[in-house]
Amino acid sequence: MNYVYVIDDDLQFCKHLSSVLSHEGLEVKISDNVIEMASKVNQDKPLVILCNVNVGEQSGSKLLRSIQANPQTNHIPFIFMLNDEKHSREGLLALGADNVLVKPFGFEELLHGILT
């Protein structure tokens, strides 16, 4: 099964994304815990990871680096989600993110980010 990971400390937002993506036929796993999901990436090999830059006290950047360092997972697209534009889009792309979406983002922008 190809999963989409949605990692954010706003679980209502995660549930909304899960509903939207499930409607498109995608299986979604949501979490507010970067460390928990990092431990599952190798097993699940998700289709794409959508992760907030900061999830509580945990850093999405650390998850990205761990995925990039592993030859079994470094091909998985990683999309950062931002609550605002205080983080540099260019800086996050330079870290290796495949895309950066600023909330609120539209359904078309989300699907484009996942499917491209």
From TrEMBL:
Q: Name one Pfam family in it.
A: Response_reg
Stretches assigned to the Response regulatory domain: 3-116
Keyword annotations of the record: Phosphoprotein
Report which superkingdom the organism of origin falls in.
Bacteria
Give the Gene3D superfamilies listed for this entry: 3.40.50.2300
Q: What is this protein called?
A: Response regulatory domain-containing protein
Tell me what organism the protein belongs to: Algivirga pacifica
